[in-house]
Amino acid sequence: MMSLLLSLALAASGTDTASTQPATETAAKPEKAKPKLICRRIADTGSRLPERECRTQEDWNRQADSIGKRMNSAK
Q1: Which of 12, 30, 42, 65 to pair with 51, CA 20 to 30 A apart?
Q2: Per-residue pLDDT for the chain (75 aa), expressed as one digit of tens each?
Q3: Is residue 39 within 8 Å of 53, Cβ to Cβ?
Q4: DSSP of 10-52, one letter per residue?
């Protein structure tokens, strides 16, 4: 009987302390959005199975720029 009263008293006191905490701690900060992956088929000669490569748009642009620079320097 005594343990029941003690547990009820602790449960009641626990709810009071939870309501006195400031609301700023519970506010979540907005997370930075992850860039969307874009998947493309890679043309692989010698294989019947298609191969895919997934990158962000920034990575695809960077790769295209580097390929363009190599092609221009080879001329």
Answers
A1: 65
A2: 767 777 777 777 765 544 555 555 556 667 788 889 999 998 877 888 889 999 999 999 999 999 999 999 876
A3: yes
A4: HHHHHHHHHHTS-TTTTPPPPPPPPPPEEEEEE--TT-SS-EE
End-to-end CA distance of the chain: 92
**H/E element, 60:** helix 57-74
- CA 61 from centroid of its chain's CA atoms: 22
Element (H, E) at 58: helix 57-74
Tell whether pTM > 0.90: no
